[in-house]
Design a protein that fits this description.
alpha+beta
Length: about 80
C-alpha cells in the first residue's frame, strides 16, 4: 500500500487557515452547498477531506459539493 496517496483529514483550524474563511462563513457555505461538507471521524470529531478542500480552493464557484456518505473510519457512525 502506498501511504502517500491517502487523502488526509483536515480539522477545522487547518481548513480555516487554508481557506481564509471565518468559522461562521465556512458553515454558512456548507449549508448553502458551496463548500464540501465535513465528515464524521469519531463521535465528537469531524474533519474535511484535504482533496475536497484543495479542489474548492482551485475553483470555489464551479459547482455545489455533496457530502460523502458512509463511515470513513469504520466506527459505526454516520455523517448525520
Amino acid at each position: 500500500m502506498v501511504f502517500g496517496s491517502l487523502d488526509r483529514i483536515l480539522r477545522i483550524r487547518t481548513v480555516l487557515e487554508r481557506t481564509g474563511l471565518s468559522r461562521s462563513t465556512l458553515y454558512r457555505r456548507i449549508e448553502q452547498g458551496s463548500f464540501p461538507k465535513q465528515i464524521r471521524i469519531s463521535e465528537r470529531c469531524v474533519g474535511w477531506r484535504e482533496s475536497a478542500v484543495e479542489a474548492w480552493m482551485r475553483s470555489p464557484t464551479s459547482h455545489p459539493w455533496a457530502a460523502p456518505s458512509g463511515d470513513l473510519l469504520g466506527l459505526g457512525l454516520d455523517d448525520g
